[in-house]
Amino acid sequence: MWNAEEEVASSITVLVTDPDAMTARLLATDLRRQEQFEVLDCASTAHAIQQCIAEKSPSIFLLGLHYRFVPVEWLTLLRNIRSLHPNTRTIVLLECQEHYLVPELFRAGIRGVFERSSYEPVSLSRCIKCVANGQIWVKSELLGLVMDAFVETAPLRVVSATGEDLLTPRERDVVRSVAEGFGNREVAQQLGLSSHTVKN
After folding, report:
1. Which of 7, 23, 168 is nearest to 93 (CA)?
2. Considering only 33-37, 85-89, 106-110, which range has the smallest mean pLDDT?
């Protein structure tokens, strides 16, 4: 009998990375033992990760984060993956004390959060299969954090006293990108503008 979950699982390619090289290797070894995934070599830098994703188009990018590492460069990396490689879905491994990052990580385009404290190979495999199948993986309490953050963030609109839009659609694109945390150079590249125009 045909099983959709088995078919999805047999075609899942996973790129694993973690700031701690030993942890990345252990995660990759655990996933290979499940015999349901093709696990790619563990890239460690943002540049190496982007190059690997561009060349091999993995289904899943499994990124381990630690609170002692500044996440700004990783948020930029995640945004780039979301825009340039939409078929690669990202799952982030987090410690409990990093829950404050969850709304920003979802804004940056991740599709799942897996807590290190609940690590168990079978559970992680289930998470990967769900996300590869287009679902979102996040605990209810963390989903609450995400929903609260999105409710608090009102859409940006600059209007006159009479309600007339004061920004052109292109200016709104620039402001939206800046509000998402991109720098002038990144916004310029994304929108095909010069850095000087974005700055103005």
Report:
1. 23
2. 33-37
Burial of 126 (0-12, 13-18, 19+ CB in 10 A): middle
Strand 37-40 to strand 60-64: parallel, antiparallel, or no bridges (unpaired)?
unpaired
Give the span between the Cα atoms of 109 and 77, in whole angstroms: 10
- Long-range interactions of 29-37: CB distance < 8 A, separation 24+: 30/121, 30/124, 31/121, 31/124, 31/125, 31/128, 33/121, 34/121, 34/122, 34/125, 36/9, 36/10, 36/12, 36/125, 36/129, 37/9, 37/12, 37/13, 37/125, 37/128
Place of tokens 């948020």: 75
Name the token pair of 107.
């804004």
Question: What pLDDT band is residue 61 in, cutting at 50, 70 and 90?
Answer: very high
DSSP string, 28-90: HHHHHHTTSEEEEP---SHHHHHHHHHHH--SEEEEE--TTS--HHHHHHHHHHHHH-TTSEE
Longest dimension (CA), the chain: 64
pLDDT at position 39: 94
Least confident of 21-25, 72-76, 123-127: 72-76
Let me know: does 34 contact 121? Beta carbons within 8 Å.
yes
How many angstroms separate the CA atoms of 39 and 37, rounded? 6
